[in-house]
Amino acid sequence: MIKEFIQGLSITARHLLPGNSTTVEYPKVKYEPFERFRGLHRLVPDHSGEKCVACYLCATACPAKCITIEADEDENGRKYPTVYQIDLLRCIFCGYCVEACPVEAIEMTGEYELANLNREDFCFTKERLLK
């Protein structure tokens, strides 16, 4: 029993030595998320403005139902979203919207600093998602 106790203390002592920190001193040091980290959403722009064809597949695939889309057609018959909105307070960051998009118009970035003081700031509109 004493042997296990000493082993546990030695592990703790090794973690207390300089250079063995397990935390990041945020905000002095920014955390680098993994490549597959699912953070803030972003609409991917193309040469005409946006790739989204308003097919509603992302809104259909979303289990939290946080994506709102309203579509319209231009003079060429191409559909585009007039309203594209994501409510991040409802979003569970599952990434199903990204997987469902047939034209790869939406992606999830590595941005994780999402704190705001107002609830309205968590509603991301099309213009904000295209930035």
Report on this model:
The chain is an alpha+beta fold and 131 residues long. It has a single domain (23-130), classed as Alpha-Beta Plaits, CATH 3.30.70.3270. The protein has helices at 2-16, 57-61, 96-100, 126-130, and strands at residues 41-43, 67-73, 79-87, 106-108, 123-124. The strands form two sheets. Strands 2-3-5 form a three-stranded antiparallel β-sheet. Strand 2 and strand 3 form a beta hairpin. The protein is elongated and about 80 Å long. The N and C termini lie far apart (59 Å).
Q: What percent of residues adopt helix (DSSP H or I)? A: 10-25%
End-to-end Cα distance, whole Å, is 59 Å
Tell me the name of the CATH class. Alpha Beta
Alpha-carbon Rg, integer: 22 Å
Structural class: alpha+beta
Major beta sheet, specifics?
3 strands, antiparallel
Order of helices and strands: HEHEEHEEH
Topology:
Layout: H1 2-16, E1 41-43, H2 57-61, E2 67-73, E3 79-87, H3 96-100, E4 106-108, E5 123-124, H4 126-130
Antiparallel strand pairs: 1-4, 2-3, 3-5
Annotation keywords:
single chain, 131 residues, alpha+beta, Alpha-Beta Plaits, 3-stranded antiparallel beta sheet, 4 helices, 5 strands
The gist of it:
With 131 residues, the protein is an alpha+beta fold. It is built from four helices and five strands; from the N terminus they run αβαββαββα.
